[in-house]
Amino acid sequence: MKKLLLIFSFSIFALASVGALTLRQRVAALEKEAARGDAEAMYHLSTLYEHGFDSIPADSMRSLSLLKGAAMAGNPAAQNYLGFKLYPEKKDSALYWLSKAADAGEMKAVSNLAYILLEPDSALDSAARHDRDSQAAELLSKAAEAGVPTAIASLGDLYREGRGVETDTLQAELLYLEAVSAGLRDAEMKLLSMSHSRYASLAPEKALEEGLRAAHSGAHTIAFNLYKKAAEADIPRAHTLLADAYSSAKGTDYNHDLALRHYAVAALGGDPSAQFILAELLDIFPDALSSVASNDEIPDKIRCQLVTNSDFSNPQYWYSLAAQNGITSARDAFRRLFGNE
Questions:
Q1: Distances from the Cα of 16 to the Cαs of 12, 104, 231, in angstroms?
Q2: Helices (DSSP H) in 52-125: which residue ranges?
Q3: Cα–Cα distance for residue pair 83/109, rounded to 1 Å
Q4: 228-256 burial code (b ≥16 CB/10 A, e <16)
Q5: What are 115-118's contacts with CB under 8 Å, separation 24+?
C-alpha cells in the first residue's frame, strides 16, 4: 500500500469553457498539443483521464502513458506524481523521477524524498538512521520554506521527536501552527497531542493569550479549549471568545443558548465587544436575555441582575456602554475581541 504521507500534485485542469469551446473541443485541442510533445498538455490530459470528467470516461492506461510522456518531456509536477505512483513497487524508478522533479524545483517532490528517507528500515544501524533523519530534515526545511504544508508539519514532527535535529517542542509548536495556517488540519491534532499537558498548566491569562494565538493560526479546537480554561477564572473577554466560538461553530458545535449565555456573562463583566454584540442581538431578539435569566447554570448574582435591572433588556443601554469604550460597530467589536488590546 502506498504511503499516505507521500504527497503529490494534481495539475488542476481548467475545465471551464474557453470562449465558445465545448469540453470535447478543449480536450481535442489538448490532444493535439500533447501529440506535438507539449508536456503541460500531456499532464493535464493525464489527470483528466485518471478520474474522468463529465462525458469523458476514465482511462487509466491512457492516463499513465500521458503521465510518463509528460515526465520524460520535463514537467516537474508529472515527474513528482509519476514517482509517487511508482513507489514502492518500483522504488529505484520512483526515486529517479522524484529526484528529477526535486532538482527542477518541485518542492512537493523534495518532501516526498524526505518521507522516503524517514521510513523505518531495520537494516540501518543507529548512525545510518541518524544520517538519514538529518538528510530528511534538510529536505523538509527546504520544502517548508517554500510553503508546502505537509513538509511544515513533518518538520514539526522531527523537532518534536528529536530526529535529525535537536528536540525543540517550541519550534515544533510554531511549525504545527504554521501548517494549520496553511490549511493542514491534521497539524492541529498533532499540536494538541503534544501540548495538552502544558495547556492544562497555563495560568488563565496565559491560556487566553495562547488561545488567541491558536485562533489566529486557524487552530480553533485548541483555541476553544484554552478559552474555556480562561473563562473558568471569569475573564470577561474569554467568555466573549467562547460565545463567538459557539455562535460560529469554531472548534466546537454550534450552540445558540451557550453563545447567548457567555455573551451575557461577558457583557455584565464589562467586556465592550460582548456589550455591543449583545445590543445587536437584543435589537433582533428583544426577549433574548429571558432564557439566560431562567437558566439554573448561570451564577445567582448574574441571574439576579438580569431579572431586576430592566435596562439590561434595552439594546441602547449596551450600545452606550460599548461606545464608552470606543466600540460603535461590529467591526470595532471583533477587532477589539481578536486584537491585542
A1: 11, 29, 49
A2: 60-72, 76-86, 91-103, 107-118
A3: 8
A4: bbbbeeebbbbbbbbbbbbbeebbbeeee
A5: 115/3, 115/5, 115/6, 115/7, 115/154, 116/6, 116/87, 118/154, 118/163
pLDDT 10s digit of each residue in the chain, 341 long?
Answer: 444 344 444 443 444 444 446 777 888 899 999 999 999 999 999 999 999 888 788 999 999 999 999 999 999 999 999 999 999 999 999 999 999 999 999 999 999 999 999 999 999 999 999 999 999 999 999 999 999 999 999 999 999 999 999 999 999 999 999 999 999 999 999 999 999 999 999 999 999 999 999 999 999 999 999 999 999 999 999 999 999 999 999 999 999 989 998 999 999 999 999 999 999 999 998 888 877 766 656 666 666 666 556 778 899 999 999 999 999 999 999 999 998 65
C-alpha cell belonging to residue 46: 493525464
Compute the distance between CA of residue 239 and CA of residue 261 in angstroms, rounded to an integer. Answer: 9
List Cα–Cα distances, 101 to 80, 110, 233, 334, in angstroms.
6, 8, 54, 45
Q: CA 300 to CA 285: how far, in whole Å?
A: 23
- One DSSP character per residue, 187-246 reads HHHHHHHHHHHHHHT--HHHHHHHHHHHHHTT-HHHHHHHHHHHHTTT-HHHHHHHHHHH
> Which residue, chain included where needed, has cell 451564577?
299
Letter for the amino acid at 227? Y
